[in-house]
Design goal:
Three copies of one chain form a homotrimer.
Chain A lengths: L2 H23 L4 H23 L4 H4 L5 H19 L1 H25 L4 H22 L14 H16 L5 H20 L21
GO cellular component, one term (chains A, B, C): plasma membrane
Subcellular location (chains A, B, C): Cell membrane
Keywords (chains A, B, C): Cell membrane, Membrane, Transmembrane, Transmembrane helix
């Protein structure tokens, strides 16, 4: 097993936990837990693979299915405990984000995509699964939460990977370093509630439609 | 027309009926009825074909578009009647589920996918269209309803098809038998309200977030 | 830059404006504005490209990313103004619709798709992005609004393009003329509130489920 695969499986597991937890929270059954976990853990990578035109690894290499199954079991047997560790979950999700934005960008670059597309595909891999999770579960996407800076670390991490690749240095050390940096960036943003400015319409300006 | 195609068109029609009915229920117009019916009837197969890497049959063979058009017309002219036969609709939907989990798995196997991927693609074909229907119509997915066992029969049917294929026996008789067995399984699960256990958080444990 | 590319970029920009505006309305941040704008402006074309089996232009030709970036900036700096020009937005969106249903159908035809598939892919290109926008933002799709005739002009425009192509006349003049006709059709439908009949269930008939 290569480092890249190991990282990918780790990221899949942590993302799948968040999907299975959401299923549990909504009272869905274990099958839904498995499906929602798989969608969260594998969905971003499947979309990336479809766009770059290779067979989705999630389907071609069954080993990718083990993390979602484990995640569904963990949530099934330990949901009351997992629930209490919401902060831990956020950390896990941050690991998934950090791993997927870097491995996603590397996968696209290795496949010969141009730098900008690779950057976008890194972001897609990182945020796509969580977006699908929320869309399918009929939620407002966490990704768009204005009180949470979620896509920015993934964007920065993918951009760094692409830049390093352009400069000719794409070894494992670079990949690990950027992944770690994105993780720290994301955790700091959670701890200090960093925000990105938005284009919210001014209040009291007839914005009754804001709730639409 | 082969048996496989005939079954597929039948499944498409029944699924499309459920999509068109939802459009009628929500007060959408006939165009929405057509689009939602097509998405429900064809969406699962299109995703399957994109993943296995062949041109989606729904687009390459226009005959697949006839069932959704028929379904939209049926619902348009007979919606008040159709509405009264909700039980009938559930039976129709069960036929679609049974047909698609088996033909979906066979399609994947014939295309050379590995057994586990084929199983998953059978399930995807069977539940993907209905999931898209609910997601697009801004509903909680019926698929995740904890009081309804929906994915399990599809899972069992796809698994059986893959098993029989592995054992070397993949004739029409096997396909028909498994399809019929899935149909019976699904109908029994409806009649007796079978459930799958879930990982619901215990009540009264500060689970105010359950409604989120 | 060919006329086709220029038209495409124009359509992308106008659609992206509607996505970024929705993000602003919902109070999402600038990253969400960029993502939602890109999804609206590029999503329909990406799905079309995946189905016809070519690498999505949005990823392979970075020039397609400029319109969503511009749109996000426009909305960010001028949202309070943009908000007052809702009618203008509807006109912009109509331009996007008219452009994408014709260029989408032409792209499919040039790629060798059959006439019916090309018609559907034209409609997909035109309405797919907006559908994704609403689905991701957790809205009832505008596309299905029974008080608004949205898909019909796209359907008519794609059908006309396919017809003209079949008759052997697929020059720029035909493309421009059909695009203009679709635009006029859409604007008239807005001005006079044209509707398509639906299969709504009769009121007072125990239809408490209509709100489901």
């Amino acid at each position: 097993m290569t480092w890249g695969l190991a990282l990918d499986l780790l990221g899949t597991f942590f993302f799948a936990i968040s999907g299975s937890l959401l299923a549990a929270k909504r009272g869905f059954d274990i099958v839904a837990s498995l499906l929602l976990g798989s969608l969260t853990g594998l969905g971003g990578g499947v979309v990336r693979d479809l766009i770059i035109g290779r067979p989705p690894a999630a389907f071609n290499e069954p080993i990718h299915l083990i993390p979602p199954v484990l995640a569904a079991l963990v949530v099934f047997f330990m949901s009351s405990h997992v629930q209490r560790f919401w902060t831990t979950i956020l950390v896990f999700d941050a690991v998934g984000l950090a791993v997927f934005c870097t491995t996603g960008a590397v996968t696209a670059l290795e496949f010969g995509m141009n730098p900008i597309a690779s950057l976008l595909l890194g972001v897609t891999t990182a945020v796509g699964g969580g977006l699908m999770r929320d869309v399918v579960a009929n939620h407002d996407p966490q990704l768009f939460n204005p009180r949470d800076l979620y896509a920015a670390p993934a964007f920065a991490g993918s951009a760094l990977i692409v830049l390093i690749w352009q400069l000719g240095g794409a070894g494992n050390i670079a990949l690990y370093s950027v992944t770690a940096a994105v993780l720290v960036f994301r955790l700091l943003s959670l701890k200090y509630a960093w925000r990105v400015p938005g284009a919210q319409f001014a209040r009291g300006q007839g914005d009754g439609s804001a709730a639409s």
